[in-house]
């Protein structure tokens, strides 16, 4: 079973002639079954033999991203690849039909892309320059028209200069300034400024001139000027006119105003001296604007023609040309990255790979196919070899659409060791169940169930749409199972949005005794499924449900943790680790059974007893467990038998003694045995020589690069624990393990009470929302009640969706995650393995084929 334990891995040596390295790797990467071992993880990629090819691919991908940006700018639709396997076949067929060497196709793409990119850059630069020129002409035209509107015709008439001095223009209108024109000469400052800087510019002008200037502005139409540096976004600018007294260019006010304009980077323009020059300038600007618009249109058409070529879908392709080029470059980059994991020696590349059991046949067939397809090219060789160093094989599980999400939950915490039991198999069942215990509600669970069903049934339609639910498709099966268990546990608790459902008829009836009305149970009546609805309508509802859910949480938690301990024993048997099995698993399972397993037995025994008419004799389980530790053998209120004649005290004493004896068994024997084994290994380590090993071709070549091999082995030892451990380290580690297990048994059991706490919180929130939003309208009745019910239902729907269906789902999900990561998996899961990274074109291309979200 490949999902219960990792697939069996084989260690092989791969030898490839350098002249056929591209062809061999191109075939092997389509198999999706090879894990290349890096011969020297400390060596940077830039210092490896194929680093130059990777850099070329990166540079070309940058150029393609610039072209893609231009296509989005011109609203060109890019057809993304939906079937990368078909595209890989097209690439393979295209390269096979060429008469040149296969790896030279990258050179052709590079040359072609360089030319097209350069042409596009030139056209884009021309477009930008033309837009800048058009902006200047529009600004100049606006200055003339708006300036004339602001200043009027009288300013075209030259004034006789009489005096130069301070003239207070503060608060004056333009007509008042015109009256002074005959006696005082005025200067004009005309230009264009961004509208967002207009108020700040006006304020500084006022402060610098101390009110000795008149300023006014008029906005330019917002759709005329574009920002070429920001994807041709529209810019709102304003024409400003500053009138101030002064006689020449060296005037102090003039110098100050020029410096202000420079700091604001405003464009200044000169105003014509007379009306004839004004009209001539307008005609000239209009002519230039027409020419510029025509040039812009022509350049835009040329740019779009270039982009249409990248947008086009060619024959036998399923995506746009730019997408095809991008995926080919990603494929080439990935191919050379994998080749960098191999060591180069002369004209040969050689390295190590891991293969799943049976995959060596596929690799041999691929190597033979290279020799058949490309005549004259030597193919590679595959040789089985014993693993080097101390690093174990990688872990590989085959997952499908259902199991992928649950396996990711496990992998996020840590990758299982090679051949260690995979917690993901059990997480598929236990994770949705624990979520359902916390989120138990018939109505809310059914909503979650419907969502999961909708995502599963219409997943193809949703995938092709722009729906926000597209992001939830990957966990649709998980949502479906979570909804199923929440719906099921809702029936167990008999809770439909805080309202009980009397489906089978209650086993209780009201009986009047004097002035009091009590609930009496029908004889030999048991409610068929779930909680009797009457318990959710009585005053002690919260007390009863709290007790029931708390005990149920403890029972589930203890069973879950005991199952984790059993898996530890199964692992020990599989790895033939009898020390762990005898001195850890056996005492741990006995300790847990004698303590918390006994507590579960007490809960179930108490539930099985009929306490009618003698509820005062029912003992408290918590009291029994506390007295078992503090007062062994003394049972004030026994669960079975009488106080004078009861074996319960003896059973408790025996359970406590057995549990106490298990603690030193967990603590002492294992470090002593391991210390003895380490001494024996250390004494005989010098006799374990490697001259008896058969040397194959790879090993002979490897001897010539002994330094690199030694470096890899030293690193493997430092990461894999190949050094001699001292007894003190072993003993301290075992002390920590023992304390963690004993104290963790208590804290972990208490941690499962979150199943009760979150279920209680969910039920109480649902009840509060129902009482506050709907109960008033239902109880009022009539027209007023209908209006209250209508408004209340809208509020009830919103808060139910936001708080319970969104926040509480996430909360229950995270708590179920915690119970698996900490309480369950720490009983057997080491989580120090590493994943099988299969060399796969399809995988890396699929990751880059989907469009990125903006």
Describe the structure.
By secondary structure, the chain is of the alpha+beta class. It is 58% helix and 8% strand. The protein has 26 helices and 13 strands. It has helices spanning 21-28, 51-73, 84-97, 105-151, 174-180, 198-209, 252-264, 275-311, 321-339, 359-373, 404-413, 423-438, 442-457, 459-464, 476-493, 541-574, 578-608, 621-630, 648-667, 669-684, 697-703, 706-720, 727-751, 754-780, 782-824, 841-849; strands at 9-17, 35-37, 186-194, 214-219, 226-227, 233-234, 237-245, 267-269, 343-345, 348-356, 381-384, 508-513, 516-521. The strands form four sheets. Strands 1, 2, 9, 10 and 11 form a five-stranded antiparallel sheet that branches. A four-stranded antiparallel sheet has the order 4-7-3-8, with helices on both faces. Helix 9 (321-339) packs across helix 26 (841-849) and helix 12 (423-438) packs parallel to helix 24.
**Can you count the beta strands?**
13
Q: In whole angstroms, how far apart are the ends?
A: 42 Å
Largest sheet: 5 strands, antiparallel
Strand content: 5-15%
Structure classification: alpha+beta
Poorly predicted ranges:
157-167, 689-723
Give the fraction of residues assigned to helices. Answer: 55-70%
